[in-house]
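Anyone else keep sequences and structure tokens together like this?

Example one:
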Amino acid sequence: MRHHERHRTDRVGWLRAAVLGANDGIVSVSGLVVGVAASGASASTVLITGVAGLVAGAMSMAAGEYVSVQSQADAEAADLAVETRELQEMPDSELAELTQIYTERGLEPGLARQVAEQLTARDALATHLRDELGITEALRARPLQAALASATAFTVGALLPIATTVLAPPDRVVLVTTVATLAGLLASGGVAAWVGGAPVLRGAWRVGFWGAMAMAAAALVGRLFHVSV
């Protein structure tokens, strides 16, 4: 009987992009809102700043994730082409290379050769991608998935500080946004840790701490310049 195991590595691609997007959406837009509000700007200016930050940030996150992950996908495609050509032109050398890999991992040479032959007969290219290059289907680069996850998460995260600019009294925008942002960061950090199988409290504290540092820096800039817009 096969026992059921729950693994989370297949979530790495979109989870990383989503966590980065959500945290960036909360922190960066909150930083804009707090910084502009602390400078003495009007409520409408603060709101427009937040909305502009949301739109620009979501587009930037999507583009950045797509370009960076596509670069990884391009590298994977290049390696795939190399392995495909080598398997066609020098199958014996590739089989010997695979045997050496398994020998270095602890198998006896004879058994390593047998394993290499059987796996090569089943799917030579997939075997070399996995065992020689470390490329697996679960961890393959998916640019579009990363871009969508990042942009969506950024938008959801940015809606929190924007909501505070609408609902909070004008003279309390900085305080309300700060409190709401810290709560949101703790929640997003905890959820991300839970989804990834990590300790929830540690994840929440880590995200909350660095978010608080960013908020403090933004508020300080606004108060130092004290520019009325």
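And example two:
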Amino acid sequence: MKASRVSVVGGVAATAVLLLSVPAFAHVSVTAEGEAAKGGYATVNFKVPNEMDDASTNKLEISFPMDHPLASVMTQPVPGWTAKVTKTKLDKPLEMHGEKIDEAVSKVTWTADGKGVEPGTFQKFPLSIGALPEDADELVFKAVQTYDNKEVVRWIEPQQKGQEEPEHPAPALALVAASEDGHGAAASHDDAKEDAKSDDKSETASADSSDSTARVLGIVGIVVGAAGVAFGVLAGRRRANS
């Protein structure tokens, strides 16, 4: 009897732990493909799981932190979804590649054209963003998830250091220090230029090599032709003398 009671209590406790741990895995989150380096660009994915058994997610709104505005935000087509990018005027313009930017993306909204994120599934929404701030260790976004039964879940609570995760945590993107070789936004453009120069040099060298080869073959052809003519003349003289 005691053993049975222990088993029952243990089972109930395990179930309780499981139920309490589900939300930690089910919230809207953001991760980078590779690293999100300060001052550079990154491709990030907002992962949206469906927490309901009888409704589908048909809309996702991601609000961007305006204390660290991003001048460049590009969406990638997601089958079955339409994306809308909203921009806002900046109080203080940004400078990007020598140009002043007076507006930045404040929100991206995805709306389902069909069934959306159905129960028991999740969907990733990719973005290319930059240039990432150099004076921050993370970017905190706010996500609003809407279901087709009109229920709305707001993932907007920031995570406080040293405290437990809130019930509806806001997606946070961790930023890493730029590498010592300076690879980032500007570096990527410089690398592209250097690659282009290398390609030009390779093509020039290849062309010079081809020209040299053609010249050598031309000279060889002339020598061979001259030798053939000389051989013919000598052969004719031998036949005439004989």
